[in-house]
Amino acid sequence: MAAVDRAAKHDRLRPPSVALLLAEARSLFEFNASVLLSPLLLRAPKGDGHPVLVLPGLLASDLSTAPLRRYLRHLGYQTFAWELGRNFGGVYRMRDRLRRRLDAVHAASGRKVSLVGWSLGGVYARDLALHAPETIRGIITLGSPFSGDITATNARRVYEKLSGEPLDGVRLDDLKALAGDMPVPTTSIYSRTDGIVNWRTSLLRPSPNAENIEVLLASHIGLTVNAAVLWAIADRLAQPEGEFQPFDRAGPFAMAYAAPTS
Q1: What's the Rg (C-alpha) of the chain?
Q2: Where are the alpha helices (DSSP H) in the chain?
Q3: Do the beta carbons of residue 141 and residue 80 sit within 8 Å?
Q4: Which domain holds residue 20?
């Protein structure tokens, strides 16, 4: 069954504007700001050594998540790259390979794995949580389009061409599952100034073990290097296994976060 109900076209969302897309160039400034703020970022809650698997976005490779993984290593986590080359997409096509990678990380560490997924990588993370919750400690998604009209992205044509998986052809039950409650603690970090993905597709339904964190003025490309995003990731990963408390926006980057909404 097609995921998108063609009788409900009024529910379609638009991809971000051309102006927001062009403004993605500011990600370089976000990276430079994080470098300057690194002494402050290293004051984030320390990790307990558990494994963190970081999944890149569409067309990205492990190089794109290297700064994030390096930061988390400094905080005391075992960090793992996805080691599957450049991400050419395909939630269905990549499912078995990702499951094997997750199992390998879990076996190597002997502990449950936290998943941090950027953009399409976050969609992979949610899909993994649905199929292998017993090996996952929690998931954090960064600007990931998993809710509502997932076609509202400026990367749609690239995804469909490279993956061979039309977004209008995603099975409705899979789409509902990806947008629904996860069996593990979940955080979605997003920005309304995202130039690639319509921010509304990154919203999850808040629950006792799930929350949205909006970072003001962040770019899509900069979500893995933005200082406020890095702090939020570190804070969420530092929670004891099996526990979940709402994110405290009163930290050193308080001005960068929007107030929580229901």
Answers
A1: 17
A2: 18-22, 27-36, 38-41, 66-74, 91-109, 120-131, 156-163, 172-179, 227-237
A3: no
A4: 9-239+249-256
Reduced to 3 states, what is the DSSP secondary structure of residue 30? helix
For the record, the structure tokens of 115 come out as 């998943």
pLDDT at 5: 47
**Residue 2, domain member (yes or no):** no
Whether 4 maps to a domain, the answer reads no
Name residue, tokens 């995202």: 194
* Number of structural domains the chain divides into: 1
What is this structure's pTM? 0.95
Give the CATH number for residue 114: 3.40.50.1820
Asked if residue 109 lies in contact with residue 137, where contact means CB atoms within 8 angstroms, the answer is: no
For position 168, what pLDDT does the model report?
A: 87
3 state DSSP class of 128? helix
| Ordered mean pLDDT values, 10 residues apiece, the chain (262 residues) | 43 93 98 97 97 98 98 98 97 97 97 98 98 97 96 97 92 94 97 98 96 98 98 98 94 95 70
